[in-house]
Amino acid sequence: MEAFLISAMAVTVGEIGDKTQLLALLLAARFKKPAPIILGILVATLANHALAGWLGHFIASAIPAHWLRIALGISFLAIAAWTLKPDDMDDAGLGDSRYGVFMLTCITFFLAEIGDKTQLATVALAARFQDLLPVVAGTTLGMLIADVPAVFLGKTASPHFPFKLVRWIAASVFAILGLLVLSGLQLPF
Question: Which of 31, 47, 120, 178 is the least buried, fewest Cβ under 10 Å from its Cβ?
């Protein structure tokens, strides 16, 4: 349960203002079909984060605990720095798809998540907890918590959302976690 809850919280916070959240806003504003967009986000995130979780699990079994702790701490610090950089998305290439809104969402979300900070967080969390299913379920729930409201709000509320403040809070959380892990302090998770 611990791996699930921490994974959900970390990705929810990390996803605020991320390019995939902006992609959810863009798709919702363009197609106005929330159900296939949300289902596409779910399927793409499950596939992407399952691969990331598997990689994290593999890394944890291949790297000694001391080096894994250092890598985890550094990865949290890197995610903190990355969180401060706002993502931009434009709607180039999001024309009408012959495969429908669901497939368009699946493909664009899967590709947008490759190398993204939430995917890297999933790798780090899977390496830390070495329990693939709760981590992937938690990170997927975190994506949905952050992205589903964006689908329903579309472009209407996005100009008024305090993305900058939330990015600073998220960066602070990741930085504190990174420093605590590097200090060797035994965290409860």
Answer: 47
